[in-house]
Amino acid sequence: MDKAQQDAMKKEAGIEAAKLVKSGMIVGLGTGSTVRFLVDELGRRKQEEGLEFTGVTTSRRTQEQAEGYGIKIVNIDEVDHIDLCIDGADEVDKNFNGIKGGGAALLWEKIVAINSDYIVWIVDASKLVDVIGKFPLPVEVIPFGAMHVIERMKERGYKPTLRLDADGKPVRTDENNYVVDLHLERIDDPAALHEDLINMVGVVEDGLFLDMVNEVIVGDPNGPRTLVNPNKA
Question: Can you tell me which residues form the catalytic site (predicted)?
Answer without folding.
Answer: 109 (proton acceptor)
